Amino acid sequence: MHSNAMPSQLDGQADDGRADESQAYDNGEAIEGLEGQADGIPEATVARLPIYLRALYGLAERGISTVASEELAAAAGVNSAKLRKDLSHLGSYGIRGVGYDVDYLVYQVSRTLGLTQDWPVVIVGAGNLGRALANYGGFVSRGFTISAMLDSDTAIVGSRIATLTVRPVDDLEAVVATHKVAIGVIATPAGSAQAVCDRLVAAGVTSILNFAPLVLSVPEGVDVRKVDLSIELQILAFHAQRRSASRPADLPGPHGRNGGGNAGAAGRRPVPQVPAELAAQG
């Protein structure tokens, strides 16, 4: 369950999360390369912090109490120098030869990400995607409470999804005010997403997660994160195509050259033909 508590075994450390000056050396060994906390944290570092937190939760579940930077970096898929630099922005310390205290690092990363408090969330759009999000159990353990789910379809309004009763989208402003919603999730079709966004912003929501396939226009001071699964698939298709192109063209198959000639082409989409006059220009 989500907890605001700081690990008790490290209560003696300073409130700003840094080790005491007297802890800068342990048995004559220097603390591993982390000196103080920067004024600001780069966006690239912020984007990696949830990955570190996921890796740390995995280590904690396995009963691991300390972790070396190399091991944590491998679990997160980054190099250890980058991880140490990222954690230096948190004022986090690891003891050379021992590593980082897993529980305390979970606390530090969680605090930096704002996860030591609960964040009320509203989902607008109760279609397949909205239903999947509402049924996902991982939000609560990370401090996100789905307070309400809204939809404009009268056939869906009033139905139960997870623990929620779908409310009409007309209730959006009242829901935001009643539950003090901090984050709005837009899971509507593209055609209605901007109008929903405008209403969320007007109601006071300044953090929006957008699953609709369009770029939202928002005023300064509103943060939008866009999730477009089709774009991710297209990027994967690009890399898959490059790997396929790098393989030898004539691989032996059960029916001879290329395994039967037409078998490889059967699943390919036709390539659009370029008009001759455009090809000449290129």
Keywords:
alpha/beta; Arc Repressor Mutant, subunit A; 6-stranded parallel sheet; 10 helices; 15 strands; 17% strand; disordered N terminus; disordered C terminus
Total number of domains: 2
Radius of gyration: 25 Å
Oligomeric status of the shown chains? single chain
Enter the CATH topology name of the largest domain.
Answer: Rossmann fold
The share of residues in helices is 25-40%
Largest sheet: 6 strands, parallel
DSSP E strands, number:
15
Distance between the termini: 60 Å
Which architecture name of the largest domain does CATH use? 3-Layer(aba) Sandwich
CATH 4th-level superfamily of the largest domain:
NAD(P)-binding Rossmann-like Domain
Please tally the helical runs, counting DSSP H or I stretches of 4 or more residues. Answer: 10
- Low-pLDDT stretches are 1-39, 259-266, 277-282
Q: Name the structural class.
A: alpha/beta
Mean pLDDT: 80
Characterize the overall form.
globular
Elements, N to C (H/E): EEHEHHEEHEHHEEEEHEHEEHEEH
Strand order of the largest sheet: 10-7-6-11-12-13
Q: Note the beta-strand portion.
A: 15-25%
CATH top level of the largest domain?
A: Alpha Beta
Outline the structure in words:
The protein is of the alpha/beta class and 282 residues long. The protein folds into two domains: 8-112, Winged helix-like DNA-binding domain superfamily/Winged helix DNA-binding domain (Arc Repressor Mutant, subunit A), CATH 1.10.10; 119-229, NAD(P)-binding Rossmann-like Domain (Rossmann fold, 3-Layer(aba) Sandwich), CATH 3.40.50.720. Helix content is 37%, strand content 17%. It is built from ten helices and 15 strands. β8 and β9 form a beta hairpin. α1 crosses α2, α1 (43-61) packs antiparallel against α4 (102-113) and α2 packs across α3 (80-88). The longest helix has 19 residues, at 43-61. The chain starts with 24 loop residues before the first strand and ends with a helix.
